[in-house]
Amino acid sequence: MFQCLFAESGLSLDRLRALVEVGACGSIVRAAEGDPIRQSQYSRQLKELEDFFQVALAERRGKGVQLTVPGRELARISRFFLLGLANFQRGCLAEQQTYRIGAGATFTATFLLPALAEMDKKVPGVKLALEAVTGTEVERRLHELTLDFGIVTQCTLSRPLQLKELRPWRLQLWVPRALFKSERQAVRALAERRLPLVWPGAELPLDALGFPADYEPAMVCNNFLEARAVLAGQTFAAFLPDFLEPGERSGVFLKLQTPELQALTFYHRLAWNPRLLRLNLHAARYRDALIAALGRELP
Q1: What are the E-state strand segments in 25-161?
Q2: Which of 34, 43, 78, 216 has its CA 20 to 30 A from that of 183?
Q3: What is the rounded (10 degree) CA torsion for 65, 67, 68, 70?
Q4: pLDDT at 165
């Protein structure tokens, strides 16, 4: 059945691991962690794989390396296979399972960490690796199986990724009274693009609100938590989700809910790759526990 694969030398687990690691790091130097001996080994192993499959698997891009289309496909197959072996080994050795979860900083601090603390009592013996990842990066890494679960706001993801809605949320516009005394003045300033906004670029794309392409925020930060911190200085206005308020000094801000904002409903969704469930039967139980914990209202 597999005679062709083993008729010639050049295919091995070490070589496939080298391809996966170089592809994930985007550089032989980074994959080898600067070790010149390992760099030489990785270069040789990639060349041996290319000779075996008779196709280019990687190409140089500046100082880095980018996998070709066949290289990415072979890396995907190899990662799936190696993860299956690693899970089998953990099961045989009764080792703890580690789940990698990617989410934005705001969701992690507000919902994920409290939910995981609660889950630890119900699903003991699980190790977690949390990463600050959002949007398309979550989608890409779920495909690559370098994340087990991710939190996204997109309503669709490319196949075969699957989604489960967790909780809805809306946006509120907070404007320091030091900038505008009335809601009417603040709304007009926003319409005329005179309102100085701090924008959480990694967690809320500008086009999510239908803003014109030439609208430029006064400041761009990473997430809603940073936007709230900037808002506290009362120099900039900020959009915040309805589960996140300015804090004890909220009285010094105007809270605006325009018809456009009221018409927008966002959702946090749990995303996963069903291939993960085939590799690790315990992952389905942990996914269901995550959905139950994250869908529950937390104080």
Answers
A1: 58-61, 64-67, 97-103, 126-132, 149-152
A2: 216
A3: 150
A4: 94
Question: What is the CB-side half-sphere exposure of residue 69 using CA atoms within 13 A?
Answer: 0
Structure confidence by residue, pLDDT tens digits, 34-46 = 888 999 999 999 9
For residue 1, what pLDDT band results from cuts at 50, 70 and 90? Answer: low
Same domain (yes/no): 250, 277: no
Q: Does pTM surpass 0.70? A: yes
Q: Measured in Å, how far apart are the chain's first and last C-alpha atoms?
A: 58
64 and 212 assigned to the same domain: no
Query: How far apart, in whole angstroms, are the C-alpha atoms of residue 56 and residue 71?
Result: 7
Confidence of residue 14 (pLDDT cuts 50, 70, 90): very high
Q: Which of 88, 106, 123 is a domain's end point?
A: 88
Q: What pLDDT digit, counting tens, does each position of 143-162 carry? A: 888 899 999 999 999 999 99
Q: Phi, psi (5° rounding) for residue 152?
A: -130, 165
Instruction: Categorize the per-residue pLDDT at 212 as very low, low, confident or very high, splitting at 50, 70 and 90.
Output: low
**For the chain, how many structural domains are there in total?**
3
Helical axes 69-93 vs 13-25, angle rounded to 10°: 110
Q: Tell me which residue range forms the domain holding 206.
A: 171-264
Residues 260 and 271 in one domain: no
Angle at which helices 135-144 and 69-93 cross, to 10°: 70
Find the CATH number of the domain harbouring 279: 3.40.190.10
